[in-house]
User: Which sequence fits this backbone?
């Protein structure tokens, strides 16, 4: 059995338009593995909270994840294409906005 490779793309990010915000973002990925059976992973997180207790952040924040995924079969042909787009946003007084996104893809025999 052969694992055919096709180009897939995963992207995530955020946009902020504000004068006063308490924000944290983080991103991580894993594309090089010791074993061919370990999955490829991608994580993105955003957290907006109050500036201090009782004082909300103000403005606009949005976050998104887009994917274009192609998978092959054991006959070396393209068998599946999957595309998705997902987004969330908040504007005005923001007491909490949290988004945690995770993508994982693996192949095993």
Assistant:
């Amino acid at each position: 059995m052969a694992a055919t490779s096709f180009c897939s793309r995963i992207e995530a990010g955020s946009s902020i338009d504000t004068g006063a915000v308490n924000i944290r973002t983080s991103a991580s990925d894993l594309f090089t593995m010791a074993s061919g059976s370990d999955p490829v992973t991608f994580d993105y997180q955003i957290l907006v909270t109050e500036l201090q207790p009782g004082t909300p952040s103000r403005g606009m924040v949005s976050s998104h994840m887009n994917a274009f995924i192609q998978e092959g079969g054991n006959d070396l042909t393209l068998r599946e294409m999957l595309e998705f787009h997902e987004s969330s946003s908040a504007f005005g007084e923001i007491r909490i906005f949290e988004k945690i996104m995770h993508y994982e893809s693996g192949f095993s025999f």
DSSP finds no helices and six strands in the chain.
